[in-house]
Amino acid sequence: MKSLLVCFYVLFVVDNLSAQPKTIDQRVDSVLRLMTLNEKVGQMNQYNGPWAATGPLTDDDKLLTQIKDGKVGSMLNVTGVSRTRELQDLAMQTRLKIPLLFGQDIIHGYRTTFPIPLAEAASWDLDAIERSARIAAIEASAAGVHWTFAPMVDIARDPRWGRVMEGAGEDPYLGSLIARARVKGFQGKGLGNTDAVMACAKHFAAYGAAVGGRDYNSVDMSLRQLHEVYLPPFKAALDAGAATFMNSFNDVNGIPATANKYLQRDILKGKWRFKGFIVSDWGSVGEMINHGYAKDNKDASMLATNAGSDMDMESRSNIQNLAQLVKEGKVKISVVDDAVKRILRKKFEMGLFDDPYKFSNEAREKQQWNNEANLEAAKNMARKSIVLLKNRDQLLPLNKKSNAPGKIALIGPLVKSIKEHLGFWSYDWPDDSTRITSLYDEIQKKIDTNTKLLYAKGCNIKDSSTTGFTEAINIAKDADIIIMYVGEARDMSGEAKSRSNIHLPGVQEDLIKEIVATGRPVVVLISAGRPLIFDWTADHASSILYTWWLGTKGAEAIADALFGDHNPSGKLPMSFPVSEGQIPIYYNYYNTGRPATSDSDRFYRSAYIDLSIYPKYCFGYGLSYTNFTYSDIQINSKSLKGNQKLTASITLTNGGRYDGTEVVQLYIRDLVGSVVRPVKELKGFQNIALKAGESKKVSFTITTDDLRFFNDNLEYDWEEGDFEIMIGGNSRDVKKAKVTWTK
Amino acid sequence: MKKWLFVLFTVFVISADAQDTKSDSYRMKTFIDGLMKKMTLDEKLGQLNLPGSGDIVTGQASNSDIGKKIKEGKVGGLFNIKSLEKIKAVQKVAVEESRLKIPLIFGMDVIHGYETVFPIPLGLSCSWDMKAIERSAQIAASEASADGICWTFSPMVDIARDPRWGRIAEGSGEDAYLGSEVAKAMVKGYQGTLTTNRNIMSCVKHYALYGAAEAGRDYNTTDMSLTRMHNEYMPPYKAAVDAGVGSVMASFNDINGIPATANKYLMTDVLRKQWGFKGFVVTDYTGNNEMIAHGMGDLKTVTALALKAGIHMDMVGEGFLTTLKQSLQEGKVTQTDIENACRLILEAKYKLGLFANPYKYCDESRAKTEIFTDANRKEARKIAADCFVLLKNHPLPGEAGVGVLPLKKSGTIALVGPLADNKENMPGTWSVAANFSNATSLLSGMQSVVGDKAKIMYAKGSNLDADAAFESRATMFGKSLKRDERPAADIIAEAVNIAKQADVVVAALGEAAEMSGEASSRTNLNIPEVQVDLLKALLNTGKPVVLVLFTGRPLTIKWENDNVPAILNVWFGGSEAGYAIADVLFGDVNPSGKLTTTWPQNVGQVPLFYNHKNTGRPLSGPWFQKFQGNYLDVSNEPVYPFGFGLGYSGFTYGDLKLSAASLKGNQTLTASISVTNNGTYDGKEVVQLYIRDLVGTNTRPVKELKGFQKIELKAGETKTVSFRITPNDLKYYYQTNTGNNNLLYDWEAGDFEIMIGGNSRDVKTAKVNWSK
Fold first, then answer.
1. Roughly how many angstroms between the first and final C-alpha of chain B, as a whole number?
2. E-assigned strands of B15-75?
3. What is the DSSP letter of A255?
């Protein structure tokens, strides 16, 4: 039977003129058979674009020649129809005319910048997040991009780490759902559609656990924690069909992720049956020399390839060594073939063998250039990402017309900023200064002529100068209400942007103190790429909106929230500490043997002698202009057995004066386990829109799937016993019920 | 086949024992076999019980609650009773009124001395003097044993890289190699050969990884890979076991999801099977019961888990006493489990000689003459002075080449600060047996050392902290700093006033003793702000200021280092601290301590440790570099690196010489360096050897301490210091690239960097190739 199949197969492949449709695997094999070893290695090589930052195409390092020689499988940082065409032309001059893949960091939008991923996560709105990724894919694919290096799905419990801005925060459940939404958004109706780009789940794995929150630092954890906390979003991305994965810079328990066989071969390509390919991070193959893991670049290529890393981004380790390694028997040709097949398969699935220029279409590029619908979606996403942290005496929203304050003072270094809204990992366009607005502009649009705007910058973001304070204090004294807009600079978060001090930078909080001292009501807007510490402000400002970096439409969204055209509904996807000294602080911690029950419960308790053990704002926290109240939990049964289903409900009431949306959150605690279990874990949530005065029953269906965890033997199962079911508007304030669940 | 082997093995072991009927172990086994035959199940369970002693009233011990339990055979031992009379009284109940007359074992937290208090362990480790550390344990044992104690809950050997954690004060810092040496020295010091009544049984703790508590918060979760566990945290526990430690204490924390107290991997697989430990394991204080809060089950469940995991004695919680019988009936534990535990405790008592003489440690004449003796205090003073670390000693402007320290024993000295005139805080945390009124304050120590040669003026200068509630938490257990209720500015003004009259100012600032230690974790590692205000005011007087820094942990003193000319870190130096500090300040002792922890610039750098991995993107130039491993706002450097410490003389290192550039197999490499005392004071220097394995099957640290020698050099003298390095020094635990949990322990052929220097940062380097 087997030999018959082989015969048939050979006939099929040899007969290139056969009219019968071939499967992609068959087509891949037919190409692979024609390839020389060097051509195979070429497919496993990715280079950065050959354009100087502002200059024309050059071939100084013979890159173009290498493409023509079939030594390059993919390029990154090449965008735009004309440039992608130019390089694809070179690929079409190769012997086998294998098309190039163009990859790009499309992290939160391309032409239209959406909120940074951490901000989007604060929306808890999976449809909106999927839409955001969809639009990014539509715009990028129209500019010739095939492949985005997103979503970044690294769980991070350390706000010092600059790349928290790129992820979905601290929770594996929320992180998994967002990973899925983003993959679906990027890949749309599936690879092969011209508006679908390949997603790349990164950074595999555990990159977010860098020691000291310092980027690229070592990672060490038990395998159980790895599986329980850090891997679930990757699994979710895989299940959603993520075409590619990127390995990470860090070492995991002494073995760099890039050469980590356990992660890549045993888990991802083994247990999880991933069929796509794995690309290294920028230079991460060669960086294994620095790690003290590889002796030289050749060793690095061998270790990475054997461990399952398929494509080498910019290390030049594969292209310079891999063929030789195969000849020496250090890397089996079957390993190379497997990697090449994975890469070719994606090129086929993308339809590039049929039309290598499929994505490089000028008409489409133009059509997506300033697409109003995209901008509207960006504004919608931006609004949903805003988190209301405080609103004393219902100061917000501000009235626009009647009863409007006579004078509004706008103070702070971000009030008139424009590009800052884009955040890190975004694209600067030549016309940004005209198409993106400042908060000042947008507030101006909201008010009528009876209201006067006063403005003073007050201070810069980072430096220590207080010379602008006096002017700011003077206008504050003259105003009825003050809006301060402070935060980080956009380049203070992102890659290699770790901070040991995550307070509001510079003298901004000093300025806030001075302004609050005027006695006028003060609204503080804070933009940043991470949770910041602003303890004094939190205690003394009247109202606080956390506005992250919200993208092209950021200022409009903030103005909408300030004036009530949008009622904030965002909830924090990360805990906000009171001090760097509390880090890591996260909601799904273990109880310990000596838990403190409050901040006055310190004596021989797991507490600090000098500070609260609680965060300033907990995971899931966020207010609304209206007021939501939760009834007690109703459960359909107090004791369950086996595969029965538990229904837990609360009645949510909008008791305030505004229509609003509330993220109702379900947490579960497994009270006793064969291993220690967290004090709570998010297991569900629903975004519920309620009119003022309206009530609604919100129900969650819970099955034993929601109770599963990795035990000490890394088996994923649930254990019978007692469980606490918790429902609330954040991870701290919850209604509880207890159930017993037996096998 | 396997079964047969087992049978064979059993027969062999039994017959081996049987052959030598005169051996100690045979006699012990015979005795205990006989005793255990007589014991009821309840009596066996009673041996596993280490209850809180409650209040024992002399003369009524027999009728106290605890006395009744003892009579019923429900108590195996008691702890933290400081009274020979009371110990004798309850022992009398045990051996006269209980059915089987089994003596009790008496434990105590004798952590860094008994009544003669030595520096806190973190300070002791900074001496890098293993003889001195062993001697301190020996003296502690001799004093404790004179007072009825035969068992100490020490040494604490938890590696700690997080200065927020208060119990960092109790250990030997961040390095596993140094920590192992200290662990051995302490076990040897306490136990000796356990034959005389001047030695006591040691209990190494807290097994395991307690120092890795997340966020530096005491009792918090720990999580790490097996390789990290065995390379970086386990060696000191193993060293204590290898040194013959009699008992082990389980730690409070969970490890990778399983509390230490129920952790079979730790207690059985590693401790007994891999390391061959033969003694018993005790829980920490209510550690068994606390597994309920951990979420491991109810008291009966967790107790069964603990016993099954390999725990033998239950401190305070009485879960063993009250639930094991039922668990036995339910088949959750076996008779063998209980008997094993009981046997191990009886064996400990036997080895301590308590069956031969239950009052072996109850010698009243010793209690009167051997505690807090002049000889012991003299040793404590000497050892303390060697633990202080001179962090900075700059000359004053215009006085090139001369540091502010040592001070002249002449002129006028202003002594200022909340720690300057206080006895109670000098012994430091965990000084259970100390008599605070016997301690010496810095003020009286200085007065004693200078006599009438210099005038010493004193003012408090500031409270410990502006927050009175915080201060009271930080000065509990009778360690009040007698809060001054005047406004802070007035208190400072008074100090500034005397500073202006003085030639030099000594500012005794820092933490109170109870700001470190158990359940004393801090998120803020600065000197409290009110004290820094004082320091600034003192500096503003223009007088030379010496900061004498009291602390139980590394503090973040970047500003102080940048602005104060001289800083002497004195930890908490024990009962003789006042004298010892004065000895150093006035140059009678040349400081030679070296830090055993890294001192970060700010809390946001934590954890910061010298033996980190290189990573794929190490900082390759001066801070800041784009797309490399660094922070935007602070460099990667600590204020003071591991191994750092100055003396009044400077030491210069010559070139590093290696006996060979390439080695093979079990050859020995000799690395030598000449060290010169280029100053005008005789002094001691800790010469440190570090090794880096350049390429490994697992990523390796940028350097690891592998040897050190504390040498004495006269002023101007040069000595050559040699280290012998064998492949044993290159071994580490690693896992192959498969994800299974098999640990290998071996060395790997390749290139190695050999580094020698006076601290972990400033080293001379040479490279060797070592092949198999």
1. 35
2. 49-50
3. E
Distance from CA of B108 to the nearest CA of A (A): 18
Phi, psi of A668 (to 5 degrees): -130, 140
How many whole angstroms from its chain centre is CA B319? 29
With beta carbons less than 8 A apart as the criterion, state whether B463 and B484 touch: yes
Beta carbons within 8 Å of A353's beta carbon, 6+ residues apart: A27, A31, A98, A99, A347
Residues B130 and B710 sit within 8 Å (Cβ to Cβ):
no
Q: Which candidate, A685, A704, A696, places its Cα nearest to that of A650?
A: A696
Nearest chain B Cα to A580, which residue? B604
Residue of A494, A320, A366 whose CA lies nearest to A423: A494
Cross-chain CB nearest to B522 (options A263, A584, A609): A609
From A211, which residue of chain B is nearest by alpha-carbon distance?
A: B607
- For residue A288, what is the nearest residue in chain B, using CA coordinates? B616
How far apart, in whole angstroms, are the C-alpha atoms of residue A266 and residue A249? 19
Which among B719, B733, B725, B727 has a CA at the least distance from the CA of B766?
B725
> Which residue, among B232, B294, B311, would best test binding to A if mutated, counting the most A CBs under 10 Å from its CB?
B294
Pairwise CB contact (< 8 Å): B629 & A217: yes
Instruction: Report pLDDT for B62.
Output: 82
The pLDDT mean for chain A works out to: 95
Q: Looking at the predicted structure, is the pLDDT value of residue B720 above 60?
A: yes
Beta bridge partners of B732: B746
pLDDT at residue B5 greater than cutoff 50: no
The mean pLDDT value of chain B amounts to: 95
Do B271 and B225 meet the contact criterion of CB atoms below 8 Å apart?
no
Q: How far is CA A435 from CA A112, A438, B637, in A?
A: 10, 10, 44
Residues of B in contact with A302 (CB under 8 A): none
Give the closest-approach CA distance of A535 to chain B in angstroms: 14
pLDDT of residue B43: 98
Chain A environment of B300 (Cβ under 8 Å): none
Full DSSP string of B66-100: HHHHHHTT--SEEE----HHHHHHHHHIIIIISSS
Asked if A467 and A584 touch (Cβ cutoff 8 Å), the reply is no
Residue B199 gets the label, from left (phi > 0), alpha (psi -120 to 50) or beta, of beta
Q: What is the pLDDT of residues A280-290, one digit of tens each?
A: 999 999 999 99
Query: What contacts A226, CB < 8 A, 6 or more positions away?
Result: A205, A206, A252
Which of A204, A295, A490, A590 is most worth mutating to test chain B (most B CB atoms within 10 A of its CB)?
A: A590
- Residues in A closer than 8 angstroms to B616, CB to CB, are 216, 249-251, 256, 283-284, 287-288, 290-291
Q: Transcribe A657-674 into DSSP letters.
A: SS-EEEEEEEEEEESS-S
What is the residue-wise DSSP string for B528-592?
PHHHHHHHHHHHHTTS-EEEEEE-SS----HHHHHH-SEEEE-----TTHHHHHHHHHTTSS---
Residues contacting B557, CB < 8 A, separation 6+: B391, B526, B527, B549, B567, B599, B639
Six-digit token string for A357:
């220029």
Please name the residue of chain B whose CA is at the shortest distance from the CA of residue A303: B737
Size of interface A-B (CB pairs under 8 A): 269
From the list A125, A281, A560, A670, the catalytic residue is: A281
pTM score: 0.96
DSSP for A192-254, written as a single string = TBTT--B-EEEEETTGGG-GGG-TT--B---HHHIIIIISHHHHHHHHTT-SEEEE-SSEETT
Distance, in Å, from the CA atom of A101 to the CA atom of A342, rounded to the nearest integer, reads 13
- Residue B104 CA to residue B135 CA, distance in Å, equals 27
Q: Which residues of chain A have pLDDT under 70?
A: 1-20, 52-58, 60, 400-405
- Whether B314 is catalytic: no
Interface pTM (ipTM) of the complex?
0.95
* Cβ <8 Å between A496 and B614: no
